[in-house]
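We store amino acids, tokens; thus:
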Amino acid sequence: MLIKTNAQDLVHSVSSEITSKAAYQSRRDLIRLMATGVAGATMASWAAREALAQAWTPPGQQAALSRGKTSVSGALTMEKVTAYKDASTYNNFYEFGTDKADPARNAHTLKTSPWTVEIEGLIKKPGRFALEDLLRLSAQEERIYRLRCVEGWSMVIPWVGYSLSELIKKVEPLGGAKYVEFVTLADPKAMPGVGNRVLDWPYVEGLRMDEAMHPLTLLAFGMYGEVLPKQSGAPLRLVVPWKYGFKSGKSLVKIRFTDKRPATAWNNAAANEYGFYSNVNPNVDHPRWSQSTERRIGEDGLFAKKRKTLLFNGYEAQVGQLYAGMDLKKYF
């Protein structure tokens, strides 16, 4: 597809020998270009449904995960669940490409077993945890969350996992731990997108400790009753439903507890556009996308009237107190 090819050419044209200032400007230009459609952002990918369908793996191909009911307040939205086909083929996972269809096409190269996660920093019990140990750490639950992308689209996805706080309690953070940093795998052999310059790799995200400890913050191992497909962040990822989707790091290999706010991927790339908090807020627009409304993938057509975006993505009753007294326009 011409749109995608142009984006790839632009990415690879950024020479490693240019100065850091020029590299930063090139990255900003690339982000801006992608957002207006050159890298197959929302409009282009929506038009390419045939390509997405070809990459689709139907449910039942992944291993099933046993899960119980949840008692966490707000963890079971009653909205219509997005079709698995849409949720597993319309993805942002730049390590596998910048087009929405790229992750489903390219993520088969990701090897998810064996898998370990290094947990370190200001904790009493640091260590390297095998995926199997993390799966057994706490009972799995199904949580049906809204997912809101900063690009103005949304989904409703049934995740399988447990509250991240269960893991945090096990490693026993020290008093000085104020933030939690999450690091995604960056393997150029398995992830073709790691060779581009749109972001600094590895992909890093972070939460304040109280955000990480909130019961809605999910360490997810599956979706739709099965293990995560690779394009959705296998074998484990974060899901923070009241924040824009890019805050929920995928394919995690490291979790670090720190006393300083982590330098996160999109905030590094364009701090004036992607704040550290990135709470869903209809009153604070992104420079290129209005956040007052959204389009539900699989339900709302390109030209249909959009639905209104809810503050904190509809989880204000559960998380609003975390930001009491904060200027949400300043700390966006």
Notes: DSSP finds eleven helices and twelve strands in the chain. Confidence is low (pLDDT under 50) at residues 1-26, 32-53.
